[in-house]
Structure prediction request, 310 residues.
Amino acid sequence: MCGVSSTIPNWAAPKFILGGGSNIVLTRDLDVVVLRIEIPGIRLLEDRSDAWIVEAGAGVAWHELVQWTIDHGYPGLENLALIPGTVGASPVQNIGAYGVELKDRLDSVEVMDLVTGRPALLPAWVCRFGYRDSVFKHSNFGGLAGKSVITRVRLRCPKPWVPQLSYLDLARKVEQTGITEPSARQIFDWVCEIRRAKLPDPAVIGNAGSFFKNPVVTEDQCRDIIGRDPGIVHYPMPDGSIKLAAGWLIDACGWKGKSVGGAAVYDKQALVLVNRGEARGAEVVTLARAIQESVYGRFGIRLEPEPIVL
Ligand code: EPU
Prediction:
């Protein structure tokens, strides 16, 4: 009988799919097969009367895809410029910025079943998108985490193009520049400027973007908090609930610039935790827990981490 060499990978082992790694905090070695997806390619799949359908391989850098659509005259993704990570990771946490979420632009996702190897095309509704959430983030209740790998993503750039300028930072750009009818490229440039001014580039300073989700509370809870802290930044949601700016809550607790070992709270955006050098995953987690406790202590709100912590 042949023995099994320890160098032969165990293909039946649980698998973890790695995109760009920019939304993952590693606190330990993983005893799983890690698949790094490098599928390239961007193409216009269809030029329909209601939209351009653009398809990109899961390994393409997200920003490269946004840049390509702008350069080729298919507007619609400009508000999502400069988001770190890969195209394949974009549906996992339903990336979003400046008034647009991936779910608003997703046509379908091509996946491969990790057991059978069979491909499938999932329409957007199957992805069960929520705020920084999808079917790909969960393994129970029919979730696809560890069961399917995203191989390609099809984006819908709607016709006619309608600029999305509702987010405060973009409305300010319109006011400051006097450009009331910006092109998609202009919005792309503004979004890049805004992000560069307040968010650290993960290629330069290690970070996972926003470390916590913006918490959603009831109107009653919000009224109570506003009563105590009238300055709190909050946004009414269509269903009557209120979204609070987690960055504001953390900032109000005095965390900007504070650190635990090499892990620190970014001094221009309190919602972002950064690696100042040799931070270990455990230090990032300790800092995150301390922030959660202090926000809970002052506001009675539990912050939920946004990145995947392993
Ligand atoms: N604020 C403070 N202090 C801070 C940080 C923020 O007072 O230290 C206030 C700001 O003044 C602003 C409000 O909080 O009034 C919201 O801040 P910002 O506009 O920077 O947006 P955010 O809610 O903190 C979200 C997303 C970002 C996305 C931006 C723009 C989440 C968790 N984060 O941040 O997404 O780029 O809006 O749309 O929803 C990410 O998910 O990794 C990410 C960077």
Observations:
- Confidence is low (pLDDT under 50) at residues 1-6.
- The pocket of EPU is lined by residues 97-98, 167, 169, 198-199, 209-210, 213-214, 233, 245, 247-248, 251, 256, 269-271, 306 (CB under 6 Å).
